[in-house]
Amino acid sequence: KHIQINTNIYSLVYFIISSLQESKFNIYIQYSKNIHSEAFIKKRLHAVFGDQILTIVTSIEEADLIISDCIELTDYSKQEFFYFNFTYDIDTWTQLTNYIQKKIMTLAFNV
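Request: output the structure for the sequence above.
Response:
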C-alpha cells in the first residue's frame, strides 16, 4: 500500500510539472513608491516560483496579473489585480504567493 501511494504522488507531481511546462503565468509589476521595489518583487517572485512558469512582462496587456502599489481606474478586463502596498510586509507576501500558487495550479489542471 505504501508503494502505491508513492507511485500516485509521483504520477501527480509528474503530471503537474509536465502541464506547467506548456503554460506561462505572466505578471506585470508596477510599483511607484520607490525605484528598487519593482526589482525586489521580481527577484523574490523568481526565487519562490522560478522563471519556467512565471514570466515578468513589460507590457500590461500581456499580463495575467498586475501587481501594483496604486489602484488605477483603467479597465483591463483580461488582467487580475493585486494591490501590493508594503514590500517588506510578510502578510502581503503570504497573500501574494498564495494567490499566485492557486493561479499556477489552475493552469496546471486546466489542460
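Residues 24 and 53 are 5 Å apart (CA to CA).
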